[in-house]
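One example given next:
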Amino acid sequence: MTTDVPVLARWFGYMDSDDPDRVLGMISDDFTMSVQFSKGSGASAEFVGDRAGLIAYLAQREKSTLVHHIDVGAVVGEYELVLGRTTRAGEFEASFNATAQLDATGAVRRLLIARTPEVAFAR
């Protein structure tokens, strides 16, 4: 395994910045996503959709608060897959998995992200 997952590394770099809307330039015309977002203790939300769904997801996020760390990743054909964690002020907040399917130009066609504070992977 590796952490050399260039598209997802750029995606989460943008998400951690003051301008996360830059991810909108990374998606294909037929983009579809689902973000399963657990706050812990069984409380969760799902954000789904196409470009408009991603815009709605971006609008409700805190900006420049969380930092995504990719711990392991793999590129398999047109797919990038990662396991990582988010931190807030340097402290663990949640673990996440992300899978992106890329089109022939390298744009993100499909994105599935799941996160939970209930499971931390040993480092």
Summary: The chain has a mean pLDDT of 94. Residues 6-15+27-116 form a domain with the Nuclear Transport Factor 2; Chain: A, fold (CATH 3.10.450.50). The two ends are 14 Å apart (CA to CA). The longest strand covers residues 27-40.
